[in-house]
Amino acid sequence: MNDKPLFEIRQGTTPMLVHTPHAGRLVPDGFDRTRLADAEAFDQTCEQVRDRHADTLGLMIAARLHATIMLDHTTRMWCDPERYPDDREEMNKAGMGAIPTRDIDGHPLYKPGQAPGMRERGQRFRLLYTPWHRMLDTICRTMLDTYGRCTIIDVHTYPGEPHPFELHADQPRTQTIIGHNNDPASRAIGARAAALLMGRGLTVGVNTAHRGAITPDGIHDIRLASIMVETRWDTAADPVARHDIADAIARATRGRA
């Protein structure tokens, strides 16, 4: 049995939230591997789509800002909490939606007739997706009520070569990418972050190969800002680069702490 929880929250003392949804490896208890079309391909895909070093980088940023951090320990191939749960999700057509059904090369993950049905999808949502988003919403609302502002730092990493299913594979794959949703507050933070990262000698894209940043579905408040920080795997693996990125993001957002 797995002793580790599916996800955890480490409470901070500022209106800053570090969101780290894709660094996990955990496959929850009860997952029936005999249903997989190719167990080895499943394991390989879990590792290939994992945001390597994102948890380490997220914890570094959280420590500098005394921020709350959300850490998802599960593999996104079991349930991906940062996909839309409905037809809004453009990755559904690639089988890489909230409950993935295909591997990284587009091959079926499950044997014919063995893919998760509505009941199993609902169970995975109840165990991870719904409580994850309920917690995201609650944390942001509490910060808005308590401090009058809230800032989300959505931490990810990505490979130097695009995955076959990526929608913007033709875009530059810089060492770092800053994503935002083009609202004034997030755009300003993103610009500061990009300038500080370039000042550290890192190459930076803004809303390029990966774009946007997560916000709770039910909150539409100008006091809420959100940026995504994507770091290329080779850069994320470098302890010096991680230190520089964490410092730059902390400096770019410190005025909102």
TrEMBL record:
Q: Which InterPro entries match?
A: N-FG_amidohydro
Pfam family of this protein, just one? Answer: FGase
Q: What is this protein called?
A: N-formylglutamate amidohydrolase
Name the source organism: Bifidobacterium longum subsp. infantis
